[in-house]
Amino acid sequence: MAIAKAERLMNLALCLLGTRRPLSKRELRGSIEAYLEAGSDDAFNRMFERDKDDLRELGLVIETVENLDGDTGYLARRDSNRLPPITLDAEEAAALGLAAKVWQQARLAGAASGALQKLRAAGMPEAEDAYEVHSALEPRIPVHETAFEPLMLACRDRRPVTFDYRKANAARPEQRQVEPWTLECWRGHWYLAGWDRDRGAERVFRLSRIAGRVRSRAGAFTAEVPDVVTVRETVESWAGETATRTALIRLRSGSGYPLRSRAISVQELGDGWDELEIPYGHGLDAWLVEFGPDVVVREPADLRADVVDRLRAVAKD
Questions:
Q1: How many CB atoms lie within 10 A of CB 192?
Q2: What dihedral do alpha carbons 113, 119, 122, 127 form, nearest 10°?
Q3: Bond preceding residue 300 cis, omega within 30 of 0
Q4: Which pLDDT score is estimated for 288?
């Protein structure tokens, strides 16, 4: 079946590239054997539309032209389907290959691998993949949130968005109007940095707390977009990476390895518990809540109170 479809797509591509005038569906059906064998007009139309979409997905530019009689024809002009010479060196090719691997868990995986195949077909040099043979490590960025793709496109196109957002200590989500700047991944979680129109200030939103659909809005940005470094520093601070103090917590033995990796000191208490001193910055309370009953905050008191508030908000659900 796969060979038959590949042959059919190849024949259709050759027909569209080899003609000087648009070909109608009737002419294409009479020129390609697989289309002649279609059981009915409906079956042929479905097959042709799928094949046309597949060729376009592979990068073939197919034009749809309507003649004076109102009939629709199709052709693929050679000048529109000719790629410029690829001048990438081996190191640049390796970087593109690594970038494509990073998105294996996202909806971008198909686009990334497809783009790589097109570049290789156009002459991009093959690069040795060090991650495929010699290493058990595989570079990936996990993307499970449905909000990722629309927000990524909104950041790219500079389009304002609205979405319902639930803060960690809130029982219900509330609508936010945001001018999105960039997406950043910290400790396995995705964050959106942008300008909150209602609050008139920059804010950072964790994608896993966005409820429902992300909706685009017309109009231009009202606030200036800062440079990349400033945005990353903002995300880092709001995600709890910038520490201003230290906190003392109790952690169940054999658990909480991300916390242990950041600990300044660790002391075994016995009875299955350890005491850790860890950096304390904005967002630490939200991170500690994720470890549930394996973590007990000893000090400072304000951090313990914030963690308790978050746990109560979760319990109300």
A1: 28
A2: -100
A3: yes
A4: 87
Query: Residue 102 corresponds to which tokens in the numbers above?
Result: 């990073």
Q: Which long-range contacts (CB under 8 A, 24 or more apart) does 28-35 make?
A: 28/74, 32/8, 34/4, 34/7, 34/8, 35/8
Cα–Cα distance, 156 to 166 (Å, whole number): 24
CA dist., res. 24 & res. 146, Å (int)? 40
Contact indicator for 51, 37 with CB cutoff of 8 Å: no
The average confidence (pLDDT) of the chain is 79
Nearest Cα residue to 186 out of 104, 230, 242: 242
Residues with Cβ within 8 Å of 258's Cβ and at least 6 positions away in sequence, in order, are 187
What is the DSSP code string of 240-268? Answer: T-SEEEEEEEEEETT--HHHHHH-SEEEE
Distance (Å, whole) CA 4 – CA 111:
24
Give the other-Cβ count within 10 Å of 22's Cβ: 17
Q: Are 168 and 208 in contact (CB under 8 A)?
A: no
What type of residue sits at position 303?
A: L
133-177 confidence digits (pLDDT tens): 444 444 555 566 788 889 988 988 899 999 999 886 677 889 999
pLDDT for res 313: 75
CA angle, 68 as apex, 64 and 69 as ends, to 5°? 95
Rounded to 10°, the helix 2-18/41-57 angle is 80
Query: Which residues have a Cβ under 8 Å from the Cβ of 12 and sit 6 or more positions away?
Result: 28, 32, 48, 51, 52, 55
